[in-house]
């Protein structure tokens, strides 16, 4: 609970909104007609709403509206209506008719001054919108809540020369010329939707077009719009869209429901992308790509996010959320769907490893800190703060667990029933749960706490073999830790996928409770403790527990180092093969970090790593997997595993550097040979080439830890001769922590070549900001003043400031200079864009995790920020929760 009032913050005390207070809307809106008159100053918006009072209506209707919106007039059934009260959050209309009526509202807004990038704003001179979660109230007065669903017709009028392209949701039903060089279009969206899915774009844009024939034979026109000079960079996004449309038909039987699907790329965007009905708006970094300007990781992100937004057409748009507490209903489900799509398009095992790494580093940390919240939060001050890794990524894990428990077919049955029951409705996570349970006749009641409890369950698994009885017994325990506001927790159903690997390295056939259960079985573990005994186990196995990371828990086992080395070599489950190696590395690193500073390498780990690298020579080697398996746990992941009040980022950095350097020294010949064997003559974007590229670049990354001038020279050579951005960035990254001329030269040349391309410049800013070279803060401050930076552009802030926060050495400098710098930036940003500022201030949320001098320095900065006059609600919520937890 937030109790503290910010000192002279927003005019009202920030108000916490609770799930338990949900009430249905007082009126439904049967139809909405919008008319935008876009101007360089003073854009007017007229809405005509067919309003229907709900039974028991009191004749009052509350419409949300931001203080920046000028109200020009209200009419009811054509007559001026002046019986209303305006507050800081909106308008209460009074004495309204008790039968359906027509409400008309006219407002004036100033999109050209909108730096928050919510509502209607300008990006690169073009108009665009962002209405999720609560941006529509910056455009006009409306019931800005997802359970108010209506059909929209939108008329847009603007100067024709400046804004030849005028887009909104649905189908184009009219267009024409107007006096004074102006023109108009009219769009009609036949599907009901909440206003957060409304979109408008007006600009001077280029476009590529393609077609998709749906499963029932309908032709859909697909268009991607962008600034004209970027039009040659849209092909990959288009291919990704077509693949997504096909996949959703094949996997879930879901067919696109309009004749037109548009994507627009804009440079100024707070988040990744937005699923507005038939008019997706994207951050340009998630659309534009050529091999020369984008990395393999960018290509993968584009494929995944294009799919994500497209998949929202059903999971989010056709079936939407009743209220924002249900956000995971659409986001968890849609992330699960995009993860599955990407797994089908690429290497499934490697995709899962990447997703779990992200979950562990970012979400586990959030779940253990002051911002911990269930995937269905109970309260919020600013909804924007709840677009979190918990709602998205943990939410996706919760959806994945249904699939693990019910099987692929059972999951599909649940999805079918969900759409059958709820198409066109605004519903809750309870409705999704009911569809999954009912479609399968399953009792999943002990699964429900995943929605209401925050915190990552801690599961222990102890296995023991009885050679006489030929049984293998697995004892499991679980504890869900306390989180702010939730002191008592109950056990929750964790599907634990288990296999037993025999001495020959093969999976054993399992018998449990007298039944044959195949080679992997899913234990439905929903008690504080449970024991499972496998019978007929002829030889001592090594258990492979939590295969494919079947539940989002922190697992501790009694596996020995030998067991882990064995699993690394033999487990049939790709995830657990990787996980065995990571467990070895984590144990070593945590020992070094907690030790006396006398670093010593574990020879078994060097041997295991040598074997992993040697695997690359096998004929069908999965090189992308090998590259992943070579990666040492990140500083963030290690920090999350250390006790509260103990984290010293300098020590983590030292220990990681020691391990990387020792491995690089001992395995130098293997690394160099693998690097050479996987260096292609020419760029290609085939999966095998991408895999080889990632392996080669991982080797270069290791080698860069050697203090050897020849390596720096070789890396620079590779940088200079690279024919694609993946290799260029990998080489630049390998130089970025090195005090050498090659680094200075490479960064300067990169700037010369790419300074006209803002997306590439973001990479340049990010790599420099993340550098762990001592005193790099001066460089970051200089970059902030330079031409490549613009504090109003979120991507640039995320790259430079976000990148800086990722530097163990400089953000966490012992003198507190990094913390002071971040606070200065947050205070400045807060006046421009509260959403971006609150994302940046989140680097401070886990201040209690750090050793006393750093934690008190961070705390002091949080207090300084809290004292700022007129602090945004976004930042206020994060700062006050961090300080009070
Ligand atoms: N629904 C989008 C994410 C999104 C959320 C909020 C935004 O502005 C505050 C923008 C986009 C998605 O999941 O892709
Ligand atoms: Zn989404």
From TrEMBL:
Residues 562-884 form the Peptidase M1 alanyl aminopeptidase C-terminal domain. Residues 93-197 form the Aminopeptidase N-like N-terminal domain. One of its GO terms (molecular function) is aminopeptidase activity. The lineage of its organism: Eukaryota, Viridiplantae, Chlorophyta, Mamiellophyceae, Mamiellales. Residues 237-448 form the Peptidase M1 membrane alanine aminopeptidase domain. Signal peptide: none annotated. Coiled coil: none annotated. Belongs to the peptidase M1 family. This is Peptidase M1, alanyl aminopeptidase. It comes from the Eukaryota. Transmembrane segments: none annotated. Pfam families: DUF3458, DUF3458_C, Peptidase_M1, Peptidase_M1_N. InterPro entries: Aminopeptidase_N-like_N (IPR045357), Aminopeptidase_N-like_N_sf (IPR042097), PepN_Ig-like_sf (IPR038438), Peptidase_M1 (IPR001930), Peptidase_M1_dom (IPR014782), Peptidase_M1_pepN (IPR012779), Peptidase_M1_pepN_C (IPR024601), Peptidase_M1_pepN_C_sf (IPR037144). Its cofactor is Zn(2+). GO terms for biological process: proteolysis. Keywords: Aminopeptidase, Hydrolase, Metal-binding, Metalloprotease, Protease, Zinc. Residues 455-557 form the Peptidase M1 alanyl aminopeptidase Ig-like fold domain.
